[in-house]
Amino acid sequence: MAFVYHWYSWLIPGQIQNTGQFGSSSFYRFMTYARLITEDEISTLVDQFYRKVRADPMIGPIFNARIEDWPAHLTLLKKFWSTVLLTTGTYRGDPLAAHLSMPIAQEHFDRWLALFAETALEILPPEHSNVVVRKSERIAKNFQLAIAHQISSNARIDQTITQS
């Protein structure tokens, strides 16, 4: 059995190349733990976490201003996390593109991660919460890098236009 390089493998940089040595692979151990997480746990995590997000004074206004249909959005997020954690492939979309236009800064990422970790630790067993929190940190890091790249690219374009 070999793992296939999926669209979301960017969440685990550099760990998919070695599919022949599963016994010593940290990726294999990571995926073994991840597969223990259930759809019900994912659903509970998403519901409870976004309940906190919606009420949070720092990041709640950002999310509440953008999301018109919370039940539909929560369903989408459950598919996202199911695809990320269980490789179900039920999520179809581009989460990065959706976030690139949002007014988010480092403190928003920090708050999101803190609430996510807090919720995961409250409702999941430690071996599951550890996997989920590490995944969320990788996703946030990749989003931050993409946003920084976009800002840098936009600044270069603005500078070019100004010099013309």
Record keyword descriptors for this entry:
single chain, 164 residues, mainly alpha, 7 helices, 70% helix, globular
Could you describe the 3D structure shown?
The chain has 7 helices and no strands. It is globular. It has helices at residues 26-36, 39-55, 60-66, 70-86, 95-100, 106-123, 126-163. With 164 residues, it is mainly alpha-helical.
Strand content: under 5%
Order of helices and strands: HHHHHHH
Task: Specify the number of helices.
Answer: 7
Count every beta strand, where a strand is a DSSP E run of 2 or more residues: 0
- Report the C-alpha radius of gyration, rounded: 18 Å
Mean pLDDT: 79
Assembly state here? single chain
- The global form is globular
Percent in helix: 55-70%
What's the N-to-C terminus distance? 56 Å
Low-confidence segments, given as residue ranges, are 1-24
User: Helix- and strand-based class?
Assistant: mainly alpha
Largest sheet: none
Secondary structure blueprint with pairings:
Elements lengths: L25 H11 L2 H17 L4 H7 L3 H17 L8 H6 L5 H18 L2 H38 L1
Helix pairs in contact: 1-7, 2-3, 2-4, 2-6, 6-7
How do you describe this structure in short?
Helix content is 70%, strand content 0%.
